Amino acid sequence: MPSFWGCSYALADTLAGIAASTYGNYVTTIDGKINYLLPMKDTEYVYCEADVVRQGGRIGLYEVRLTADDGKLLATAEFTYYRTSSRIM
Known about the structure:
Layout: H1 3-21, E1 25-36, E2 46-55, E3 59-68, E4 73-87
């Protein structure tokens, strides 16, 4: 498996985790899935953005898109996070 697959999954998980933590608590990943749509090559940058699908009391669902510098969609991902009771200081 090429190393960029693991790196792109880690990037998507990290960005979704940052989005989940904006509610003020530490989070931990419950589940994650990524769909690779195009090869991650011939691009200088890979852009990543995350959106909240739903944030409940403790469980949140987030969608992530990874795109090339020309705007082509490279991968989509979905992550579920558990929001702990520990506040981020």
